[in-house]
Design goal:
The protein is mainly α. Helix content is 60%, strand content 3%. It has helices at 2-83, 95-136, 145-151, 163-166, 198-207, 223-232, 236-269, 273-293, 315-326, 334-362, 410-415, 421-424, 438-467; strands spanning 177-181, 188-195. Helix 7 (236-269) packs parallel to helix 13 and helix 10 packs antiparallel against helix 13. It is rod-shaped and about 140 Å long. The N and C termini lie far apart (138 Å).
């Protein structure tokens, strides 16, 4: 009997020492896991803050570039208007060419002001949105002193464990399965086949945060991406149309600069071949930027399918042809005069068609479903009705809607509800808001204004062609008084 008692005591002592050693080992692992988990979560949150900075800097950098370009463009535009005074050192160029020139140079400055102000708004709003997220939402998950005290376990806490766990004989007495408390029945239900002691379940209940969030899934995405995509709704449109506005400015400015050059070369220098060579340079540059920025992607509901962008760069070629005849040594005849007017009307018709084409190219494309995303290809979410013609030129980057395979969000796991409850919580999505299409409405107003300008100037050209050039104005003096 004494031998049995001694053997039982020795077995109990060995089991006690074995289980206490396991408990102390698990306590160290608990403390290490707690600190490692929060260190990784803080590192990942720092990466998320960099995500916000990178996405914001893309817009802000573009806006700053547009401002720099806009400042130079203001100078170039006013150089043509003020310093490039035509008719000062000699007779003014013909009225049909001046109509083309002034319409283009004034439309250019209208798009210049438009894209500069839109770039200013996009950069400022993106900066403010990023600052708000970084100071309010994207904070490092630093554990509190109370959480650190809960993670730390003392050796005497082993005395509070279940007798089964304290004197469990390895291999002979198996630990219970990993389980959790069912909210409906209040009983513990197994959730896996792993065998875990009770102190493991105590660790899970004590250390795992439960903020009622959704559990990670293959379709989930970190919250900061969803929140940021909601913020991007407020400035992506300004970003897009500021970029499109730069192209529209360059298109009209290059045409007006080419027309001004031929006016100067013909009217003051009286040279034929330099006018053609200068025109060729401007035409090539104009054709090149249109070819680079405008793609041939069709738009649903398009009403102007003619690729005028492939024709409008050659308007100065027609103009320099007409000027070559107008300033030539040929005797003026009705045929030559009619030929010059015919060429001018072709130029006006192309410019008018180009103004209508601009409306069609810049119109947004609303979609009902997401387009497939391919690496290296331009992509935007369906919430952004980007004009298809400029999808390759606006350089937008949207916050992703899903994580790539193998990626996970530690912060989301820490906030997820415990057990099956987290599987039933819906994923947090960006706030639903209406499309911020005010930039398109403003841009549309600028395009309609340009269309109206061409209608007016063509009406004026028809009136003067019928009644005579400069019919309504005196060649000298004014109605109010004679010049001093």
């Amino acid at each position: 009997m004494e031998e049995i008692t001694a053997a039982a005591a020795a077995l109990s002592s060995a089991a006690f020492d074995y289980n206490r050693a396991n408990y102390i080992f698990d306590a160290r692992m608990r403390w290490g896991r707690f600190n490692t988990g929060y260190s990784m979560a803080m590192a990942q949150t720092s990466q998320y803050r960099e995500d916000i900075s990178d996405l914001t800097e893309l817009t802000v950098t573009k806006a700053d570039t547009y401002h720099t370009v806009g400042t130079i463009c203001f100078f170039l535009n006013f150089e043509l208007i003020v310093d490039g005074s035509l008719g000062v050192h000699g007779p003014a160029p013909p009225g049909w060419l001046m109509g083309l020139y002034w319409a283009n140079v004034c439309i250019a400055i209208m798009f210049l002001v438009t894209f500069t102000w839109m770039a200013m708004h996009s950069g400022a709003r993106a900066t403010a949105g990023a600052a708000q997220m970084r100071t309010h939402t994207m904070r490092l998950p630093i554990p509190t002193p109370k959480m650190l005290d809960m993670a730390r376990v003392t050796g005497n806490s082993f005395e509070k464990q279940r007798v089964h766990d304290v004197f469990r004989i390895p291999f002979a007495m198996r630990a219970g399965k990993e389980s959790e408390v069912d909210e409906e029945s209040g009983k513990r239900i197994p959730i896996s086949d792993r065998r875990m002691p009770k102190w493991y379940h105590d660790e899970v209940e004590a250390l795992r945060k439960d903020e009622g969030g959704a559990a990670p899934s293959p379709t989930s995405v970190p919250e900061h991406f969803e929140l940021y995509r909601g913020l991007q709704q407020e400035w992506w449109c300004y970003d897009v149309y500021s970029r499109i506005g730069i192209l529209f400015w360059f298109s009209h400015w290059l045409t007006s600069a080419s027309l001004y050059s031929m006016c100067h070369v013909f009217g003051e220098l009286r040279l034929l071949w330099p006018a053609w060579t200068v025109t060729a340079c401007f035409v090539t540059a104009h054709w090149g930027i249109l070819r680079l920025d405008i793609t041939s992607k069709p738009r649903e509901g398009s009403f102007m399918c003619l690729p005028i962008e492939k024709i409008v760069p050659f308007v100065p070629v027609l103009a320099v042809f007409g000027m070559s005849i107008d300033y030539s040594v040929l005797d003026p005849t009705p045929f030559l005069q009619g030929l010059i007017y015919t060429v001018s009307w072709i130029c006006y018709a192309i410019q008018f068609a180009w103004a209508i084409r601009l409306y069609d190219l810049a119109a947004p494309q609303f979609r009902d479903k997401e387009s497939p995303e391919h690496a290296g290809d331009a992509w935007s979410p369906m919430e952004w009705p980007v004009p298809p013609a400029f999808s390759q030129a606006v350089y937008l980057v949207s916050a992703p809607k899903y994580l790539e395979p193998g990626q996970t969000c530690l912060t989301q796991e820490m906030k997820a509800a415990k057990g099956q409850k987290g599987q039933n919580v819906p994923q947090r999505k960006a706030n639903e808001c209406s499309h911020s299409m005010l930039p398109w409405k403003l841009f549309r107003g600028a395009i309609i204004t340009s269309i109206s300008m061409w209608v007016l100037i063509m009406f004026g050209r028809g009136f003067e062609q019928i009644n005579g050039e400069r019919f309504l104005l005196k060649q000298e003096g004014r109605v109010e008084r004679w010049p001093s």
